[in-house]
Amino acid sequence: MLRLITGALIGLFSAGQPALAQVADLRSTTSFRVCADPANAPMSMRDGSGFENRLADQFGGWLDLPVTYSWFPSGMGFITKTLRAGSCDVVMGYAQGDELVQNTNHYYTSVFGIITRKDSPLAEIDHLDDPALAGHPIGVIAGSPPATIMARAGLAKDMRGGDLFVDRRVKDPVGQMIAGVRDGDLDAAVLWGPLAGPRIKDDPQLQFTPLLKEQGGPKMFYRITMGVRPGEQEWKRQLNSLIRRHQEDINALLRDAGVPLVDDYGKEMLP
């Protein structure tokens, strides 16, 4: 589902400064080389329609560099086969704190939420321990943070799980869950905002309600950065500078795409 929840922590680039210098030499100075999944709608798509594609175009423009891609399905092996292999230089969306990459400063914070039909009796629900959810079929990605909270709230029997790691060129669990809510096969789906929000932003039947009131863990909001190789400090600083100077442009692009934005503490939605 997300690069947000990735398994392996690989302790590479720990052999000292000479290795770090070699890593820094991998960055291209003639193009903005992006590591991306070719079928991770609505984030990245080979046809360029994802919001991360549009964000990459903006950064390429600010750097005065053409944008090129190294495509590989997200999930296990994605970073090893792309960023660490030196075929590209940046992952456009990566959760803060993941040790597989070096994170830039975060450029947005988003949140999990509940997809319901606007005319549903569940439309007013805004937290996962609401007893009104019991007995309703609810889609959720297995292994995602809200699945843990739902199980703790006694909703395990109501959960209709989708796989976390799939090849999205052939499977689309998030899209299937949203379609299930729209068609009535599911009464709700609990999904990551950047994956769900853009898909329903113009849908007259569906709504996204952010989960801003959950108590205890795991948390429902995450700060999203760009990922670069460990040791590439100059590259990270350059991207951080662009993020700082163009934050309003970035926010506007994300809002236009339908990405739900929250403050850095996951407490309230940004306008």
TrEMBL record:
<dbReference type="InterPro" id="IPR001638">
    <property type="entry name" value="Solute-binding_3/MltF_N"/>
</dbReference>
<feature type="signal peptide">
    <location>
        <begin position="1"/>
        <end position="21"/>
    </location>
</feature>
<dbReference type="Pfam" id="PF00497">
    <property type="entry name" value="SBP_bac_3"/>
</dbReference>
<dbReference type="InterPro" id="IPR022448">
    <property type="entry name" value="Quinoprotein_dehydrogenase"/>
</dbReference>
<feature type="domain" description="Solute-binding protein family 3/N-terminal">
    <location>
        <begin position="31"/>
        <end position="269"/>
    </location>
</feature>
<protein>
    <submittedName>
        <fullName>Quinoprotein dehydrogenase-associated putative ABC transporter substrate-binding protein</fullName>
    </submittedName>
</protein>
<keyword id="KW-0732">Signal</keyword>
